Amino acid sequence: MCQHQPSCPTADSNDREAARLMAHHPEQGWSLLCNGVLLFEDTGELLPDGQVIAPHRPLRAGQALKAA
């Protein structure tokens, strides 16, 4: 799918978010990456095979997860 040199990471690789932007719609909260991944403003993702990746915002400095 990707015509860039070097090629963008594939949709199933861990660094898939490093692919180049093909379409960017901040007013709607999403971007389409070269590898077919839809990246949402909340950091959630929709992969080309339909798999959903839940939002995964990084924690701010000094912030820790609390067990429920």
Describe this structure in words.
This protein is mainly beta and 68 residues long. Helix content is 0%, strand content 24%. Strand 3 (38-40) and strand 4 form a beta hairpin.
What structural class should be given to the helix and strand makeup?
mainly beta
Question: Which residues form runs of ≥5 with pLDDT under 50?
Answer: none
Give the distance, in angstroms, between the N- and C-terminal Cα atoms: 43 Å
Work out the radius of gyration: 14 Å
Mean pLDDT over all positions: 86
Approximate shape: globular
Helices and strands, in N-to-C order?
A: EEEEE
- Based on DSSP secondary structure assignment, what is the total number of beta strands? 5
* Strand coverage percent: 15-25%
Strand order in the sheet with the most strands:
1-2-3-4-5
Oligomer: single chain
Number of helices: 0
Helicity range of the residues?
under 10%
InterPro entries: DUF5999 (IPR046041)
Pfam family, one: DUF5999
